[in-house]
């Protein structure tokens, strides 16, 4: 850096080292997300004909195109929450947007694992990665082991993302009153979370399977009728 340059004397990270750091960060997010088994969970494969899921689908699709603020999806087991959350994550991957998709208990396990003697990642490094990721998707909030440590770490992550308005998707099958009130108050702040969607649907997977079965039967009956004509 020549004398007189505004950056003279300022320590600047080499661009190649910065690029390598970003590459490792992206790979770590992919590894922690483990989205390979869920790569088929896209908006195209989501069955919108199941009663009660249309509004959630529309809002999740809209959010995936431009992730801003928080999106919260409440609903019972099997109502399609995880499919929609994974679809948002897969959309981000396709756009090369750094994203972390994780079930909340797994997230806490990932943090705890850094304390092990064989861990190659320091706790602070992983915590910062989770806290600051451009898009964080937390599946099954409320199913985690509610130890004081777990509650505090989760609150620290959520509070940081709330303060900096970082895009965050949350799914939960729990009654809101069972969620840490400190986190719940942030989920209910309309300044950052414009909408909380309650998916009032039955078991999406079972209903979707039944509908596909009956649809195939109807197509088969129609085909046989045309043949008989």
TrEMBL record:
Pfam families: IstB_IS21 (PF01695). GO terms for molecular function: ATP binding. It comes from the Bacteria. CDD domains: AAA (cd00009). Gene3D superfamilies: P-loop containing nucleotide triphosphate hydrolases. Residues 67-203 form the AAA+ ATPase domain. One of its GO terms (biological process) is DNA replication. Keywords: ATP-binding, Nucleotide-binding. The keyword Nucleotide-binding applies. SUPFAM superfamilies: P-loop containing nucleoside triphosphate hydrolases. This is IstB domain protein ATP-binding protein.
